[in-house]
UniProtKB/TrEMBL annotation:
Enzyme's top EC category: transferase
Taxonomy, superkingdom: Bacteria
Protein name: Aspartokinase
Pfam families: AA_kinase
GO CC term, one of those recorded: cytosol
Reactions the enzyme catalyzes: L-aspartate + ATP = 4-phospho-L-aspartate + ADP
Domain Aspartate/glutamate/uridylate kinase: 1-282
Molecular function (Gene Ontology), one example: ATP binding
Species annotation: Aureispira anguillae
Alphabetic keyword roster: Amino-acid biosynthesis, ATP-binding, Kinase, Nucleotide-binding, Transferase
E.C. no: 2.7.2.4
Keyword DNA-binding listed: no
PANTHER family: ASPARTATE KINASE (PTHR21499), ASPARTOKINASE (PTHR21499:SF59)
Residue spans crossing the bilayer: none
Amino acid sequence: MMRVFKFGGASIKDADSIRNVASIVRRYNSDQLTIIISASGKTTNAMEEVLTAYWKKQTSEMKACLDKVKKNHKQIMDDLFDTAQHAIYSEVHDIFVDLDWILEEEPQDEFDYLYDQIVSTGELLSTKIVSAYLNEIGLATTWLDVRDCIRTDNTYRDANINWQETEAAIQARVPALMAKGLVVTQGFLGGTTENFTTTLGREGSDFTAAIFSYCLDAQDMSIWKDVPGVLTADPRLFDDTELVEQLSYAEAIEMTYYGAQVIHPKTIRPLQNKKIPLYVKSFVNPEGVGTAIGAFDITEYPPMIVVKKNQALLRMVSKDFFFVDEAKFSKLFEALANRRIKVNMTQNTALAFSVCVNDVPNKINQLVADLEANYEVEKIENLKLVTIRHSSAKLFDQIVGERKIFLEEKIGSNIQLVMGKDEVL
Ligand code: ADP
Ligand code: ASP
Ligand code: MG
């Protein structure tokens, strides 16, 4: 069977975790596997710190952050490999040399471009180490540079996939490699036609795995997580969560779009298009049933809660006392789209249009300036959007409680509430 696996940062955070990943992979020995891997642990955050220090020309901070990343990876290698003569040490060294080349020059290019060239280091390191380890323990593995496969435009930090080129590149390379053994490649990264590195947006490795699954017509795709599967809510926020064993593609899209971090929202569509099942499984308990997402016709779901942080509410009131009608709506949405501001909920009256959006500070100020001539714009910050799917009346009452609700929408048993970010649910 041809399968695609994805392992995230938590599953490869140290040597023991990588050994655990290897033991999971070994169970699927008879399958043809492509394995997508994220950066180890919190490396992506650490690389963002390196970048910020570089951008601000704070050389000593930059070196200190980078040293931490180097140390972490050296520790992992020391724990995994018997000898410092192992070829992996020089491969990892080469990756850091490439990075040093960039960091030695003063920042001249655009921030987003530099972000992708620098932050991508995390995935290059982790995949090199994991594939060397798999080879070391007798699981023949090819390391694949994903930038030759995932072809994108040059929207740095949020690159768009060129599906035709990507499909051709994956089909030309990967099946032949899978015939020889395991294939390990990077999540999150892509490459432009000029061979610059791009990234697909934070948490994008799940999406990378879906792209490979689609292009390879995989039998199924599994993402291995630190949770038993998709739960009725984020266990970091709620105590009494339950495993949801089956979800339809549509239900999974709704949950992830509104903030269920367990799967990146872009992951579902490519799989749905080819009816490829997605399994969300636990790397802590690989025997567990996990969650299956597929073309199921499910009518009954338990109540599920999703919280999306970092929200702001914009209330735009027409200055000239004209109705906010269809023509005005389309202008307002155009203004939002031009600034790439993501709208999560809307409501309108004759003169006012309210939107709950992802709060990206600069962008919102720019939007306010764009609209100033025709609208008074009021902004409320520090909010979160709580989505309750398949709610019961009891759960609704419990979530609303005495809390101040800034915006509310109810469609059947699906409810969305905008409230202060510090409300404890
Ligand atoms: P990865 O390491 O693969 O990127 P993530 O950390 O992004 O994994 O996703 C797993 C995390 O998602 C869990 O640790 C959990 O806290 C969070 N999460 C949020 N909502 C849910 C949910 N409904 N079910 C399970 N996990 C959830
Ligand atoms: N390493 C990247 C991130 O932390 C991509 C991913 O993990 O999915 O965002
Ligand atoms: Mg993730």
